[in-house]
Design a protein that fits this description.
- By secondary structure, the protein is of the alpha+beta class.
- The chain has 2 helices and 5 strands.
- It has one domain: Trna Endonuclease, Chain: A, domain 1, CATH 3.40.1350.
Length: 120
């Protein structure tokens, strides 16, 4: 399996994990000029933007550590565009989650990071 196939496989695994726990997924692999978001859905009244990270081992850091500040900014910019595109106002609560797949272990970190506002 190449990296792209492995990534798609782990995203499918994460999607199944989230839906089994009450997430209503609306979109996968949303892409635009600002970036990409792996999954978008609703959970407990929140519009949730989900980043999925996979690491076979912890040799080069954990899956969670791979979602650094730069990646968080890009996700937030992309989420802002998604909300604009779908006319989802600022009154809708938003959450940024990470699903970290490390080997065979899956961790769902809800509210993994706060919204980072873009500099104008």
């Amino acid at each position: 399996m190449n990296k792209r196939e492995t990534g798609a496989d782990k995203e499918t695994l994460a999607a199944e994990y989230l839906t089994a726990r009450g997430m209503c997924l609306k979109e996968r692999n949303f892409r635009c000029r600002q970036g990409e978001i792996d999954m978008i859905g609703f959970h407990d009244g929140y519009l949730v933007f989900v980043e999925v990270k996979y690491r076979r081992t912890g040799e080069f850091g954990t899956a969670l550590e791979a979602v650094d500040a730069r990646k968080q900014r890009r996700i937030c910019r992309t989420a802002d565009y998604y909300r604009y595109l779908h006319r989802l106002g600022e009154d809708r609560p938003v959450r940024y989650d990470v699903v970290a797949v490390q080997g065979t272990e899956i961790r769902w970190i809800q509210n993994a990071f706060p919204h980072i506002y873009s500099r104008s």
